[in-house]
Amino acid sequence: MRKIHLIIIFFISIAMTGCPVRSLQSIFKYQDLIYNPKLIGTWICNYKFDSTEVREVWSFQNEDSSHYHLKIIYLVKDSISGKFEYKDSVRFQASYGKIGTNYYLDIFPKPLDELCNLNNNMSFRNYFIPTHTIYKFSFENEYFKVKTLSSGWLIRAIEKGKIQIPHFIEGVDSKKDPNYKNMMAMSHDITLTATTTELQKFIKKIENEKDAYEDYEMVYVKEK
User: Fold this and answer.
1) Residue 31 pLDDT > 50, yes or no?
2) Model-level pTM?
3) DSSP 209
4) What domain count does the chain have?
5) Which of 64, 96, 131, 198 is the most interior residue, by most CB within 10 Å?
6) Which residues on neighbouring strands pair with residue 95, listed in sequence order?
7) Mean of the per-residue pLDDT values for the chain?
8) Which residues span the domain enclosing 90?
């Protein structure tokens, strides 16, 4: 049953924010990081997916002078009791900073030690490469908004030659492949392999691109 709930949460997340663009490197250098104490606390976003009501809870705590512990909790409203029930949670290291004229949040999964311990095999971690997820971030006193990079827009921009950045696209081998255009059109899974310097140049270049970020904006309100 828990696996079913996790699958539901996964598809709801993809539907609401799109398939996120992943990055092997952080978008921030140390000097770019900003510590904002107003982020500390619990923030809630309620939304609907078809007939399913979802509550997503983001809880920020201090990690050090530049980073946060971020725990994301997923709850789904029970159709009979009308109460939100806990389904799953994930933990990240979160970084907040400014690039160009905008603010961003970079989240990175916590070390895999706990998962490896559950599997009784520390070498299990060798089969995973954690990646960063990038959010465009707009902050107010009582709420914040986040948008993810649009994987569809980025893949099309790369295919048309408008954007040049080191990357890997799932299922696409080479431009010489006769099915290259069809594979690019169907793929929504992209991982950036660029350095932090290259990522920052890219982010500054697209900051005024209207379609570079997903249309849907998630709004998180601070818990009273």
Assistant:
1) yes
2) 0.83
3) -
4) 1
5) 96
6) 67, 106
7) 83
8) 2-222
